[in-house]
Structures are given as structure tokens and as C-alpha cells.
UniProtKB/TrEMBL annotation:
<keyword id="KW-0874">Quinone</keyword>
<comment type="subunit">
    <text>NDH-1 is composed of 14 different subunits. Subunits NuoA, H, J, K, L, M, N constitute the membrane sector of the complex.</text>
</comment>
<keyword id="KW-0560">Oxidoreductase</keyword>
<feature type="transmembrane region" description="Helical">
    <location>
        <begin position="6"/>
        <end position="24"/>
    </location>
</feature>
<comment type="similarity">
    <text>Belongs to the complex I subunit 4L family.</text>
</comment>
<feature type="transmembrane region" description="Helical">
    <location>
        <begin position="62"/>
        <end position="84"/>
    </location>
</feature>
<keyword id="KW-1278">Translocase</keyword>
<keyword id="KW-1133">Transmembrane helix</keyword>
<keyword id="KW-0520">NAD</keyword>
<keyword id="KW-0812">Transmembrane</keyword>
<protein>
    <recommendedName>
        <fullName>NADH-quinone oxidoreductase subunit K</fullName>
        <ecNumber>7.1.1.-</ecNumber>
    </recommendedName>
</protein>
<feature type="transmembrane region" description="Helical">
    <location>
        <begin position="29"/>
        <end position="50"/>
    </location>
</feature>
<dbReference type="Pfam" id="PF00420">
    <property type="entry name" value="Oxidored_q2"/>
</dbReference>
<dbReference type="GO" id="GO:0016491">
    <property type="term" value="F:oxidoreductase activity"/>
</dbReference>
<comment type="function">
    <text>NDH-1 shuttles electrons from NADH, via FMN and iron-sulfur (Fe-S) centers, to quinones in the respiratory chain. The immediate electron acceptor for the enzyme in this species is believed to be a menaquinone. Couples the redox reaction to proton translocation (for every two electrons transferred, four hydrogen ions are translocated across the cytoplasmic membrane), and thus conserves the redox energy in a proton gradient.</text>
</comment>
<keyword id="KW-0813">Transport</keyword>
<dbReference type="InterPro" id="IPR039428">
    <property type="entry name" value="NUOK/Mnh_C1-like"/>
</dbReference>
Amino acid sequence: MEIHVIHYLIISTVMMFCGIYGFFTRRNLLALLISVELMLNATNINFAVFNRYLFPDQLEGHFFSLFGIAIAAAETAVAIAIIINVYRNVKQVLTDDITDLKG
């Protein structure tokens, strides 16, 4: 049984909307980071799937996915460092408390 492209796109769409929903509804900075990671992984799935079905003999989509994973890892490292600094100053990691860092 072959898995069609629509199945991959449904999974990717669900992941993207879960990420968007989490990004707009969560107040915790770590939950926001996880939501952004969900959105990035949804795009990586699309890169790999469209490469497989449109250009099966080439690897550009896979290279874009690997590049996206590397960017996501770097983004996560920087975001966690920022979250740790916010926690040291404010003692919470909620988005409402970030305004306390001004001036």
C-alpha cells in the first residue's frame, strides 16, 4: 500500500496549525519555542515530500530539510539561552513578565 502525498500534507498541515495555535495561545516561553519548532518541522516535511514526488532523482528537498533542521537547532540554542537569562532576572518565564525587563 502506497502512502499518497495528500497524507503527508495532512500531517504537515495539522502540525503547522498546532504550532500556530500554540504560538498564539500559550504564555510560557518554552511552549512558544515548542510551537515554533512544530511549524519548522511541518515545513521540513513539505520539503522532503515535494522533493520525493516532484523530483525523485534529486536531493534538493532533503538538503533544504537538513538545512532547516540546522537552523532550528541554532534557533533553539539561542532561544533557550535567552529564556535562561529572563528566568534569572524575572524568576518566571511567562510572556507577560518580559515587559518588566525594560528600562
